[in-house]
Design brief:
With 360 residues, this protein is of the alpha+beta class. 50% of the residues lie in helices and 17% in strands. It has eight helices and eleven strands. The strands form three sheets. Strands 6-8-9-11-10 form a five-stranded mixed β-sheet, with helices on one face. A four-stranded antiparallel β-sheet has the order 2-3-1-4. It has a two-stranded antiparallel sheet with strand order 5-7. A hairpin with a 4-residue loop joins strand 8 and strand 9. The longest helix has 48 residues.
């Protein structure tokens, strides 16, 4: 069942600054607004709850008249939360946080608290995604305006061949940039639609790594980068081949792009335990500053050491895809002197006893 969460983060601040009665007054107004808005939005048999000892307001969509999964789509949950949050912000005058998750049942104690925290984290990512699409809209206008300007000039003026060619090359470059932005938007928008079947997929790890390396080989050759796979055993991982190949293309291409020209990018595999395998991509570039190693996985965020062009989409797509299958991605320091990107994937049960992988 979908569990919707609205949280008033400012209650504690109001209580500290203005006193507990002031915070309680805001809480009462917000609760009244929450109930009124939820009554209009949800069904009569849906469960509403509020914890007097916290800032959490819950709406569990458990109506027996609902078909299983019929209200669990991201669009439905986001739209409902947006209405609840808007009403509560208007009534209480404070900013709210929202999130949603799916539960097998409503339990108490630690399990419910964990579900609430997970929902709020997911809500934060959804808001980040909205912000991203707003930003990307502005990003798309820039190359579009440039392309239109150059093409109109070519149509309206009689230019010499060299100038004509230069204008066309600029227009082509801007068109390529638009293509990358659109591809990134499509990747992100499709993640939720693909999520339903993500846990049923698997693939051979070595085959996907080889496909990714083959795909980026021309780019590595153009930068004269030494690209090599150091070690990989025969493992079956719990992710589809297309998904994994796309993840690895993003990671390896990123390493080539931001590494040194005529540098080195090495891919290796190591077993972590009986459940997870780790793919490591090392480069000898400038690396990623310690305080930016988390933010570079956010949408439209890039590291301060990045010198090559990019839109800040690829790594965000990597993390979003991995989250769907219980995997992880992070970055640290490489023994080559640059960055080491690590992708952790769950192994399929049949391969958990494999011993063939070696680490660098």
């Amino acid at each position: 069942m979908p569990l919707l969460v609205v949280r008033l983060r400012d209650l504690e601040r109001i209580a500290w600054r203005e006193g507990r009665p002031a915070a309680r007054a805001v809480e009462r107004r917000s609760l009244r607004s929450f109930i009124e808005s939820a009554t209009r939005t949800l069904r009569a048999s849906d469960l509403l709850a509020h914890d007097d000892e916290s800032e959490d307001f819950l709406a569990a969509l458990i109506s027996p008249t609902r078909q299983s999964g019929s209200v669990a789509t991201p669009t439905d949950c986001r739209a409902t939360l947006a209405r609840l949050a808007s009403a509560m912000e208007g009534a209480g005058g404070v900013r709210v946080e929202t999130g949603w998750t799916l539960l097998d049942g409503i339990g108490g104690g630690v399990r419910l608290r964990h579900a609430i925290e997970s929902a709020l984290e997911r809500g934060a990512r959804e808001r980040e995604r909205y912000d991203f699409f707003s930003t990307i809209g502005h990003e798309l206008r820039t190359p579009l305006t440039s392309i239109r300007g150059y093409l109109e000039t070519l149509l309206e003026e009689d230019l010499d061949p060299d100038t004509t060619r230069r204008f066309l090359e600029v227009a082509r470059t801007e068109a390529i940039r638009m293509g990358r932005l659109v591809d990134g938007m499509f990747d992100i928008s499709m993640l939720d639609l693909r999520a339903t079947s993500a846990h049923d997929e698997s693939c051979q790890l070595g085959s996907s790594i080889s496909s990714a390396i083959d795909a980026v080989a021309p780019f590595a050759s153009a930068r004269k980068t030494d690209l090599a796979l150091l070690a990989c055993g025969a493992f079956v991982v719990a992710i589809g081949s297309d998904r994994l190949t796309q993840i690895l293309i993003n990671i390896i291409e990123n390493a080539i792009k931001h590494g040194r020209e005529r540098g080195r990018v090495y891919v290796s595999v190591a077993t972590l335990d009986t459940r997870y395998i780790e793919i490591r991509v090392d480069d000898d570039g400038p690396g990623v500053a310690a305080h930016e190693r988390e933010t570079i996985f956010s949408l439209a965020k890039r590291g301060s050491n990045a010198t090559a062009h990019g839109s800040g989409i690829g790594l965000a797509v990597v993390r979003l895809m991995l989250e769907r299958i219980g995997g992880e991605a992070d970055v640290g320091e490489s023994l080559l002197g640059g960055a080491q990107f690590r992708v952790r994937l769950p192994l399929m049960p049949a391969t958990t006893s494999a011993k063939e992988s070696t680490s660098r």
